Amino acid sequence: MEKQFSREDASMKKWIKELPLEQPSPDFMQKVMAGVAHSAMKKPYQPLISRKVWVVIITLFILALLWIYFNPSSSIIDSEALSWDSQMQWNNPFEGMKIPKTAVYAIGFMALFLLQIPFLKRILDKSYI
User: Fold this and answer.
1) DSSP string covering 83-125, please?
2) Most exposed of 36, 43, 58, 82 (fewest Cβ within 10 Å)?
3) SS3 annotation, 38-49
4) Domain carrying residue 103
5) Domain annotation covers residue 112
6) What are 34-76's pLDDT values in tens digits?
7) Is the pTM of this model over 0.70?
């Protein structure tokens, strides 16, 4: 099997040696430099949110603050309808649940393992640098 590959390898080397070297076109360097110059041009900075949009956002925010200041008892927002304490009853869903000791040990060992990972990673990073 190795003889076949070595024979093919020798024939490939022979064919490669027979091939002429390729020469770049006469204006190759100029094209490369033009491409580099074109890619080196920086785009002008353009913010994600334009000034006009910021002005609109700030204006709406100020108008909302002024509306709340001058109309504190407005009928737009009913504060009694928004009070959730009287509408919801908070019950503990884990009230009668008991966790076995093995689960507590498993959770504890998993927490220790996850706590050790950053320290071990730091040690390995220092030893390979």
Assistant:
1) --TTT-----TTTT----HHHHHHHHHHHHHHHHHHHHHHHHH
2) 43
3) HHHCCCCCCCCC
4) 99-129
5) yes
6) 887 777 677 788 888 999 999 999 999 999 988 888 876 655 5
7) no
